[in-house]
Amino acid sequence: MRSGITSIPSEKQLAKVYTKLLHPGTQSPSPNELITYANWTRFDPRLAEIWVASVSRGWPEIHPMEINRAALASPWPATLGVLLEFTRSLVETDSQLRDSFRHWRALAVQGIPPAKSELYFLGLRALGSDASREDAALSTTEYDHWGYLGRENLLAKKGTSRLSKDKRKTILAQFARDRKRVKTSDYWNAVGRCITRRQAEREIKESGYFRPHGNTSSRYWISKKRIGSRQIQESK
């Protein structure tokens, strides 16, 4: 895999790309341009969000093998995989497009190797900070699948990202360690509402860390005992 890009896009460059993706006019971005922008998303979550929204609308006009070749020749090919995971969440809400997009996406990402367990966004968090550690510990499925670590939702409030069951268990273990009392909504929001509220309540109950208090409308959960970090690791 090639090394990273040699320069970070400027604010002026990013502003032009925003406009080009949001208002393509008569000439849509070429596959090479889309891959350049895909690589640039590592520096700018807003660009990533716009890229996903744009491609979710325009993918039928993009030749999948051309964007595949461009990605494989780029510094960070797996960025395409991550972005198309989010794109899939938008496109597949239309059942008539679901199968077509799956075939298109399979060609677009064919042969692309995953990254090597690195943070997707560069410069977004301070290295070694609590936020960067949470990015790694609570990385969502869209990033994990392509060897990246991240938890930014790129769906522009139109959907939820995916968090694995093991990582949801980690959040519950952390709650049990750090909090005496938890509301269902606390956990539901912590997992990005990637499951239903009813499932969130069921997972709290089944975790074994909490006991319920109050009736259905005002229920909250009390930690049965404070647990240590070693037990949290064992719960993953």
How would you explain this protein's 3D organization?
The chain has 236 residues and is mainly α. The protein is 53% helix and 6% strand. The strands form 2 sheets. A 3-stranded antiparallel beta sheet has the order 3-5-4. Strands 1-2 form a two-stranded parallel ribbon. Helix 9 runs antiparallel to helix 12 (229-235). The chain starts with 10 loop residues before the first helix and ends with a helix.
Show the helix and strand layout.
Blueprint: H1 11-22, H2 31-40, H3 45-58, H4 64-72, H5 78-91, H6 95-108, E1 118-119, H7 130-137, H8 141-144, E2 148-149, H9 165-178, E3 181-182, H10 184-190, H11 197-207, E4 210-213, E5 220-223, H12 229-235
Parallel strand pairs: 1-2
Antiparallel strand pairs: 3-5, 4-5
Helix pairs in contact: 1-3, 2-4, 3-5, 4-6, 5-6, 9-12, 10-11
